[in-house]
Every structure is written in C-alpha cells, then in structure tokens.
Specification:
By secondary structure, the chain is mainly α. The protein has one domain. The chain is 87% helix and 0% strand. It contains 8 helices and no strands. Helix 3 packs antiparallel against helix 8. The longest helix has 41 residues. It is globular, with a radius of gyration of 23 Å. It starts with a helix and ends with a helix.
C-alpha cells in the first residue's frame, strides 16, 4: 500500500473514532436527561422521604463545611492581597471591600464552592451508589417494593439542590471575613465600615442571578453523581471509575451552567 493509501486509511479511522465518540457523547447526554426527568418526577410522588432527605442533607453539609470554611477564608485573603496593590497605585483602596464583595458574590464564591462540592459530594454519591449497585443492594430494594430512584436518588439530588446554595452563601460570608482581616493588615477599618462599603456595592442584579444558578449547580452535582453511581457496571474497579467520572462531568456541567448564566444575566440586566 502506497503512502497516500495509508494516509487515507488513517484519516478514515480517525473520522470513525470521532463519529463513535460523538455518538457515545450524545447517547449519554440523552440518558442523563431521561434520568433527570425520572428524578424530578420522584420529587412529587408520595410518600415523601423526609427522614432520608434530612439525613442526606446533614451528611452533605457535615462533609463539606470544614473544607468550604478554610477555602472561603483563604479565598478572601488571597483576593484582597492580590488586588490591593493595583488599587493603591490609583489611590482607590477604599473601593477594595466593594470590589471583592462583587467578585465573591457574582462569580468566585458560587463557582469555587460548586467545584468543591463536585469533588466532595458528587464523587461520594457516585462511589456510594456504585457500591450499592455492585453489591446488588439497589436490585434488592426493587424486589422489596422500595423504589431506589425515590429513596436513594431523589433524596440525594434534592438535598444537594437545597444545600449547595446555603453553602455558597456561607462561603461568601467567610470570604468577606477573610477580606476584612486582609484589609485590617494594611488599613485601620472597623468591621461595620467594612461591611457597609462591601454591601453598598451589591445590588439585586448581583445577588439574584448568583443565587438562582447555585440551585442548578446543586441539582446537577447530585444528579450526575447519582447517575454515574446508578449506571455502574459490575466489578469493584467500576466504583472508582464512577466516582472519578462523576467529578469530571459535574465540574464540566458547572462551567457550562455558569457560562449560560452569565449570558442570560447580561441580556436581562445589561451587565
């Protein structure tokens, strides 16, 4: 076979791989959407699993709160220390609290907290449900007339949907406290004056879109972790693969949602 023939064969193989990858991608997207529709339907089916929902919400908050506390505080410190020298050059250091508050509330707080939750929560749900799938606990639930989609999946997804916005607000507050300590290193400013300057720069166009998108972050963090765990194939190695895949996919979806949220906010508020 001559050189041109080999090159043509390699090109055909490359195109075939792309077609297979695209087919697998869109197939998985369709399966996730169907899984999401089934999960949402379980939210409105009685009886409601209140105890399991509260249990999952406690575990989710308990697992992530220390990490978010440390990260949020350091985030506020670092942002302030990096931004202050630039503002000092223009004599605008008094604008520092407001600038950091807008950065935290609009973008950095929600996205960073959601990524931390994706790494901590989504992987945990994926590994937990994957282990239940491998050990046939989910099959046993179906045999015993307990709906795993309702008891296992819906409660976890609803818990993350409700808890992630709370964790984001908490991270923003901790980040502002970290900012205050960083500002106090250089300037003698009271806590009251600092928070007055910070909140004077914030408006509803900053708070409302940032809060709304965190519900979508939470929903997809729980959904993707549950989907990856629920669809785990048999074998112990697949549990680790499900947890890893849940983190990667959830992180990618967070960036996509954030991109869409920024575009929609720009159209609605002209920001």
């Amino acid at each position: 076979m001559d050189h041109s023939g080999r090159k043509s064969m390699q090109m055909n193989q490359f195109l075939t791989k792309i077609k297979i990858s695209l087919k697998d991608f869109f197939t998985e997207v369709g399966e996730i959407l169907l899984f999401a529709a089934d999960t949402i339907r379980q939210f409105f089916v009685t009886p409601f699993e209140h105890k399991e929902l509260l249990k999952q919400a406690y575990f989710i908050g308990n697992k992530t709160l220390p990490l978010i506390t440390i990260t949020g505080f350091i985030m506020g410190l670092v942002l302030t220390m990096q931004s202050r020298p630039v503002l000092v050059e223009f004599g605008a250091q008094s604008m520092l609290p407001g600038m950091i508050a807008i950065s935290l509330v609009r973008e950095i707080g929600p996205v960073l907290t959601a990524l931390l939750c994706a790494g901590k929560i989504s992987s945990g749900i994926g590994a937990e449900l994957g282990a239940m799938k491998v050990t046939e606990q989910l099959d046993a639930m179906e045999v015993s007339a307990t709906k795993p989609m309702k008891f296992v999946v819906a409660t976890r997804v609803l818990a993350t949907t409700l808890l992630v916005p709370v964790l984001v607000i908490y991270a923003d507050a901790i980040g502002l406290i970290g900012t205050f300590f960083a500002v106090r290193i250089y300037d003698p400013i009271s806590l009251t004056l600092f928070f007055n300057q910070a909140f004077d720069s914030l408006g509803f166009e900053d708070l409302i879109p940032a809060t709304i998108k965190t519900f979508f972050f939470g929903f997809f963090i729980g959904l993707i972790g549950s989907y990856k765990g629920y669809k785990t194939s048999h074998g112990t190695e697949s549990v680790g693969l499900s947890a890893n895949s849940a983190v990667v996919t959830a992180s990618l979806v967070i960036f996509i949602i954030d991109l869409l949220a920024v575009q929609i906010t720009s159209l609605l508020f002209g920001l």
